[in-house]
């Protein structure tokens, strides 16, 4: 009887240790919001530094071909060089993640969006918005940035989100 109780207690300790170690690993991994924020920062850095390769890497695998010139297209659209990043990556809520998406059996996709505001050396403000799947185990080639839009602020301070913007990529369904 002592052997059975001892074996039972050892099994309980092993199970408890496995569970607690597993949850510790989960706490150390990035949340989907942190991944989205990091992607937004990478997009900003790529555009600011004219780094087409870094920007291309943010797009999902399905949309990467042809993105070599994405930074050039952005600089054809915006007037001047980026002088100021108005979005504070440390304090502002510029990214949202985990909303939307789909579940198919044990597979899922979760979407993200972010918006960052920049000002050029000519004093013109632009909003750069990104959207895509931060997680996609249904269609892994769709995981990543799917669409990037750049909006120019109107002279009266408003934004026109329905026309006159630059779009790179497409919204995948």
Tally the beta strands: 7
Low-confidence stretches: 16-28
Q: Give the amount of beta strand, in percent.
A: 25-35%
> Could you say what the CATH topology of the largest domain is called?
Nuclear Transport Factor 2, Chain: A
Q: What is the 3D form?
A: elongated
The portion of residues assigned to helices is 25-40%
Tally of contiguous helical segments: 4
Report the major sheet: 7 strands, antiparallel
Specify the CATH class of the largest domain.
Answer: Alpha Beta
User: What CATH architecture of the largest domain would you give?
Assistant: Roll
| Number of self-contained structural domains | 2
**Helix/strand structural class:** alpha+beta
Q: Which radius of gyration do the C-alpha atoms yield?
A: 22 Å
Mean pLDDT: 82
> Would you list the SSEs in sequence order as H and E?
HHHHEEEEEEE
Protein name: DUF5104 domain-containing protein
Organism: Lachnospira eligens CAG:72
How would you describe this structure to a colleague?
The protein is an alpha+beta fold and 173 residues long. The chain is built from four helices and seven strands, in the order ααααβββββββ. Residues 16-28 have low confidence and may be disordered. The termini are far apart. It is 34% helix and 28% strand. The chain folds into two domains: 1-30; 31-169, Nuclear Transport Factor 2, Chain: A, CATH 3.10.450.50. Strands 1, 2, 3, 4, 5, 6 and 7 form a seven-stranded antiparallel beta sheet that branches. Helix 2 runs antiparallel to helix 3. This is DUF5104 domain-containing protein.
Give me the secondary-structure topology:
Layout: H1 2-28, H2 32-48, H3 52-58, H4 70-77, E1 82-85, E2 95-97, E3 102-104, E4 107-120, E5 125-136, E6 144-152, E7 166-169
Antiparallel strand pairs: 1-4, 2-4, 3-4, 4-5, 5-6, 6-7
């Amino acid at each position: 009887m002592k052997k059975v109780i001892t074996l039972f207690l050892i099994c309980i300790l092993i199970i408890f240790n496995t569970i607690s170690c597993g949850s510790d690993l989960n706490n150390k991994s990035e949340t989907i919001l942190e991944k989205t924020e990091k992607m937004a920062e990478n997009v900003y850095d790529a555009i600011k530094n004219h780094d087409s390769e870094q920007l291309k890497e943010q797009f999902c695998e399905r949309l990467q071909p042809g993105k070599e010139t994405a930074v050039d297209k952005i600089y054809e659209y915006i007037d001047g060089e980026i002088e100021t990043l108005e979005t504070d990556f440390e304090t502002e809520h510029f990214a949202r993640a985990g909303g939307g998406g789909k579940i198919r059996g044990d597979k899922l996709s979760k979407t993200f969006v972010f918006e960052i505001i920049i000002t050029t050396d000519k004093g013109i403000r632009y909003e750069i918005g990104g959207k895509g799947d931060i997680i996609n185990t249904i269609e892994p080639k769709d995981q990543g940035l799917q669409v990037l839009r750049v909006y120019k602020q109107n002279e009266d301070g408003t934004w026109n989100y329905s026309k006159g913007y630059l779009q790179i990529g497409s919204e995948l369904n």
